[in-house]
Amino acid sequence: MDKIRQMKNYIKYMSLFIMFLLYANITQGQSWYHFTGNVVSQGDSLEVPFYEVMITDNQGVNVITLTNENGFYSDSVFLDPITQTITVGLFDCMGEFLFQDFTPPQAENNANFTICTTDNSCDAMFVYYPDNINYNKLNFLNVSLGNYTSSIWDFGDGNISIEENPVHIYDAAGEYLVSLTIHDSINGCESSISQPVFVDVNDTTLCYADFTYELSEDNNKQVFFTDMSSPNIDYWFWDFGDGNFSQETNPVHTYATDGVYSAILSVMSNQDECNEIIVKQISVFDSVNCIVDFNYHLDTINNTPYTYIFNDASSEGITDWLWDFGDGEFSNESNPVHVYDSPGTYTVCLTAISNNPSGFCDGTVCNQITTPSYYNFGGQVFIDGFTINIEENDSSNFATAYLYRRLENKWEYMDKREFWKYGYYWFVQKPEGEYLLRFDLEPESKDYDFYAPSYYKNQSDWRAANTFLLNNNEQFEVNVNLKKLTDIDAGIGSISGNLISGQGCDSEDVSNRIIKLFYNNEYVAYVKTNSEGEFEFLSLPTGLYRIEAEVSGKLSSTEFVQLDDSQPYSDSHILQINCNAFVGVEENEISETGIVLDNVFPNPVTDFVNFKVYTTIEQDIEIELVDILGRSINNYKLPLNKEYSDIKINLENISNAIILYRIKTYDGTLISSGKLIHNKR
Hints:
By secondary structure, the chain is mainly beta. The model is unreliable at 1-8, 10-28 and 584-591 (pLDDT under 50).
């Protein structure tokens, strides 16, 4: 069982057990409320599998369920009639809580969600359970969230493991602090969690859950379940993994569609005062028909026009593919890339064949593709109202234009072009869409030290830049005015450091990147990093400086540097690129507030959370804690000292599992916001 299904089973275990106890203690007037829905990704409307969906009410019920392999979720809650509102919701990749309220809820309720799914973060989580025979042996399950490539376990007794789901035998009973650290070598994400585990040499399990199942010979979707639990079982609760339930001892269930389902049996014994749960995977497959489907998208950041990426989306078990692209070309790959020679409308057909365990099946599906339009565009680059080169043979300024295209909610690099004559640039055969342009003078240019790299129309920060929509062949005045740097007196000071690749970055190149220098919040200089990401500013006067990287479409950490007569040199500063930047997300300018949130730790948090805040002047801030519905939990109004302040907040008396925080200036300007995972004791 893979880690995602383990996580699904564990969370389902907990919510179902709560439901089972509620059922066992049923009182007159309570009712079941059933909630279903689909979760699909924004843009391509693909199903989002194994995604958390929360069901909460105003009486303290909080159930977390997961979508199945097809992006479908189904769960029930058992409530008193006093309940007025049920909220069904989830967090998308940007941390926004999307929800639907049911006031009052009906017996059957449906809530569908469309979410962004590009988050590359990871959160370490694990669960454990003892062996049924050797109680010193613990089974550990890695149920971490997000993508990661390696796991390291520390069992708290001097032993470690790099297995995904290790089994460890302790020498003695007791309490041990177990730590799990996960790391993603692709995106650079790393997360750790530590929690106590308890080893008891005495068996406290008085009953055991188990079952067998058998598929019908006449109908592969019909399954016969047989309870094998013991001893003295009084109650059975079955969850067949498709939104259907039973309280029979040996039920028979027919699944509606093909798939792999997590069947859960929860049993309870009144005599022995115990309860147990077991989960098994059930595979059902139609031996006659298989589902054939595919999706596709234009590779819009490819400089070769009419390049399409095709992805097979057929049911599991496909062994052979035949693609007909409608232009006389074919492929036997499962996920091919195809380039059309000319624009037009094409009928693309996929024939898929499956030799699955239940027999042979095949099918064909066709979709029409109409290629988009491609256009040429250009413009000129100006300095103080004049083109960077005025005369025909004037080559005193050389420049490079960098082109970025919006792909869903991110900017992706597409192309570049060097130019000089009359300051004129152009690009050819680019697909219609929204674009971002940056223009850099080259080091040999006469004005290199006086004008900053700038975006269309005249901004030096990509977050504030104008974009343009390419939709015809008449756009040849996409012009830019380079931003002039502010002059400062020369001194003997210097600032140096390194640029490194950080969160969400896939081996981001740190060479030839722009590092900006601000003095009294004025943009005074820039340099570009060398091949190792190193940078240095020389001949600086004393004072307070701010440095940050300008990497188009990506964020950068910020460093504040104080140079004075006793310490005019400052080195070893680290700037980090954050690739989790989204188009349309407002970024807080430190020059406006004078405040930056440097760190929040630990997260997940148990008792205390720490906020590390930097400010250029003494001032007050407000930290507000709210729940997932935006209801206030607590407010803290705090004074800040100049430079760094460490703020520690006690969460021991807060019961919420998920806490949202907002940090504001005293006049209400938002500085930062985020989410805390609260591991309550």
